[in-house]
Amino acid sequence: MTEERIVRSMLVSAALALGVAGCPPETPNDSDAGVGGSSTGGTTAMGGMATGGSATGGTAPVPVCATVASLPAMDTACNTLGESRCDPSGNQCVCEGGERRWHCSTICTSTYPTEPAVGSACIHGAACNYPSGVSCECDNHSQWVCIGTAYCPADMPTTGQACNGLTSVLCDYPNHDPHVACFCSPNADASTGSTWTCIAPAACPTTQPAYSLTNACPGIALCSYGSILCSCVESSMPWICGFGLGMFGNFFGTLPGVPST
Questions:
Q1: Peptide bond into 205 cis (omega under 30)
Q2: Does 210 or 27 have the greater pLDDT score?
Q3: Model's pTM, two decimal places?
Q4: Beta strands in the chain (DSSP E)
Q5: DSSP-assigned letter for residue 28
Q6: Which of 93, 145, 159, 246 could form a disulfide with 231 if both were Cys (CB 3.0 to 4.6 A apart)?
Q7: CA 48 to chain centre
Q8: Distances in whole angstroms, Cα of residue 32 to Cα of each of 25, 161, 205
Q9: Dist. CA 50–CA 227, nearest whole Å
Q10: In 3D, which of 138, 128, 168 has the Cα closest to residue 151?
Q11: Cα–Cα dist 51/251, whole Å
Q12: How far is CA 251 from CA 6, 24, 86, 98, in A?
């Protein structure tokens, strides 16, 4: 699968979800507060998020990966987009991006034990979850993109609205009808300033999808199941769960007028 095919599929799905590509979603009501969480730091990275959540009342956790004895080296080449592997310690690696590289949580505890500043420098391929609910991934420009931060506006923004000072923040508004996710990125046609780009992801399954290379997701999707975030950017790919943003952070960089992330 080429990166161009992935981009085309994303754009078609985004256009269908919004009705007309580029049109901002409708104005939210008071219940549309974005997913929050502390972004002030001081919480430590979680190495065990890859277990798929806690078992309650005898219900086993939903698998988010294939368990292996050892993980591949972070930021090395991989073959199958969406393939997810975990080691016995709960560290996780997922094959992501048009460049097909392993993105891993292996260095989170040692190198990024506390929540990073959104947009700050990072080691490409790192992806970390934090107890506050914040999930961050190091993008193709070696900068942190995060979701679940306290920076997200309580009132859902609209496409084209200024978001200076919030660059690389991804905000999810699951209570809006339709469900909307917005990303703050630098203006592609200006030397300064940032704007929101908002899309309507596909409907989320009622229960957390189990990991399987044959369990294809419905297209562009961003779904929360307790502390587990599941994402997808193309219908031919498997769900990526328990791994923060998955490929969703880089997805917004493929939309027209948005610099590639």
A1: no
A2: 210
A3: 0.72
A4: 66-67, 84-86, 92-96, 101-104, 127-129, 135-138, 144-147, 169-173, 180-186, 194-199, 221-225, 228-232, 240-241
A5: P
A6: 246
A7: 18
A8: 12, 17, 20
A9: 11
A10: 168
A11: 25
A12: 9, 18, 24, 10
